[in-house]
Amino acid sequence: MRKRSAVRQEVSCRPAITAALCREIRKAMNVLRSTRRCFAAVLLALFLPASVAPICAQPHSQTQHAPAGGVSLASLIEAALAVNPEIIALKREFDAARARIPQAKALPDPMVSFSNNTVTNPVPFAGLRNDFSEITVGFSQDFPWFGVRRLRSQVADAEAEAKFQVYAATVLRLTSEVKIAYYELYYTDRALAVLARDKEILDKIAQVAEARYGVGKAQQVDVINARVEITELLDKQGMLEAKRAITAAQLNQLLYRDPETPIEKLAAVQMSPTPPPLEELAQRAEANAPDLKQLRHQIDGNNKSLRLAEREAKYPEVGVNLTYHNRPLFSDYYTYGVTLRLPLYAATKQRYAIKEQAANLAATQARLDTNLSLLRYKLSEARVRATTAARLIKLHEQGLIPQATLALESALAAYQVGQVEMLTLLTTLKRALDYETRYYELLSDYQQALAELERFTGVELTR
Predict the structure, then answer these.
(1) How far is CA 7 from CA 11, 43, 135, in A?
(2) Are residues 81 and 175 in contact, defined by beta-carbon separation less than 8 angstroms?
(3) How far apart are the first and last CA of the chain?
(4) In what order do the strands lie in the sheet with 134-143?
């Protein structure tokens, strides 16, 4: 009797064990004498806080673990597109390109001339009574050959449309980058939450190990192993916090604000539907991708520029002029005429303009072929990432996480009755932690792959 009292006094005096924890341990030891099954349930309730209950009792899903409310992805995308200076600059460049279309179509500016002929006196209007004195007023206008103005406006229009596709491609790229940063930040937040919860579990396990060591029911190595696992979690936590800070700075940069601006809790991420087959994605990309549309408009503009150069090398530019002559001593009279600006030096000028436009056209066509091949590779790579992540997410939800949870429950109960060592319990807990953090990493990878597909296809795939 005195020995039991001394043991209880020793346990109660250990500074690492609270009075409430001692009561729980005494209850567990009493239950151990009666029934092993009830003892496991009591110890499971002791070790696992309320935040772990969904893992043990319910099917694993992202909606059960994601926080409700928070900053939505749509609001961040809207903010990025509204303030990003690159988007604003490209929009203004497109406006400038559109303003060049009517200029290219317009006629050359007319010319008005005035002259005064004087005799014996260079002062203007002096000697007007002389037979040779006169005042002339003239007007002239140049007219490009038929079809030249239309081709010039078509070239300017194609260049403006290509500039708009640059703007559209940048919008898609920025949207994709915001989504990728958002999903990466979501993963780090959820991983940090899981680490914090499991650290709390390990703290309780370490306290129980210390209590059992104090009464001679466990070895000192059990306490040391538990503390080592806690330190390892702190190491992972530090790495994740650094990764979160970098991702948050990247997201703030996309939002064009200070990198240190705090980002509030993110809204829950729902897993998007599986992407369509590769052939369908390739068809959508060829029809909608702004990068391809830009090159097609450039090809159209180069075709028009080539036709324009050929026409200018073949046909002259026509000018008309009209002049009124006022002679004080004689009757007024008029002169008019036509001028032709001949491509006399076509062999050394216009011919090379044709070669220039033909080379530009061939280069743009080759660039389009290259981008089509590269785009198909990127679509294939992103889709493989997405489908692989989706398959692994299903494996974690339906297999690995439930099985690891059951193994953890069993190890907790077995450890208290001495059937397994502390190292086995810690290994089981670490495996459950790794599976859950891996789940959120896979969810982030899946959504990021879909965001890349959106950039290439121009079709929204995430939500």
Answers:
(1) 6, 21, 129
(2) yes
(3) 67
(4) 111-117, 134-143, 317-326, 333-341
How far does CA 5 lie from the centroid of its chain?
Answer: 66
**386: closest CA among 286, 278, 285?**
278
Distance CA 1, CA 41 (A): 29
Q: Where are the alpha helices (H) located in 66-147, listed in sequence order?
A: 73-83, 85-105
Q: Which two tokens stand for residue 275?
A: 């992407």
Query: Could you give the domains of the chain?
Result: 2-457 (1.20.1600.10)
**458 conformational bin, left if phi > 0, alpha if psi -120 to 50, beta if neither:** left
Q: Long-range contacts: 64-68, Cβ < 8 Å, 24+?
A: 65/190, 65/436, 65/440, 66/190, 66/268, 66/269, 67/265, 67/266, 67/267, 67/268, 68/268
Task: Give the Cα-Cα-Cα angle 40, 43, 46 (nearest 5 degrees).
Answer: 155
pLDDT digit string (tens) for the chain, length 463 residues = 443 444 344 333 333 333 444 444 344 434 333 333 333 333 344 343 333 333 333 334 433 344 446 788 999 999 999 988 999 999 999 999 999 999 999 999 999 999 988 777 777 776 666 767 888 999 999 999 999 999 999 999 999 999 999 999 999 999 999 999 999 999 999 999 999 988 888 888 888 778 877 877 767 777 888 888 888 888 988 999 999 999 999 999 999 989 888 888 888 898 999 999 999 999 999 999 999 999 999 999 999 999 999 998 888 899 999 999 988 778 889 999 999 988 888 888 888 999 999 999 999 999 999 999 999 999 999 999 999 999 999 999 999 999 988 888 888 888 777 777 778 888 888 888 889 999 999 999 999 999 999 999 988 888 7
Nearest to 459 by CA among 379, 385, 384, 371: 379
Report whether 86 contacts 80 (CB < 8 A).
no
Nearest to 90, CA basis, from 179, 169, 175: 169
Instruction: State the pTM of this model.
Output: 0.76
What token pair was written down for 127?
């000697």
Compute CA 51 distance to the chain's CA centroid, rounded to the nearest angstrom. 33
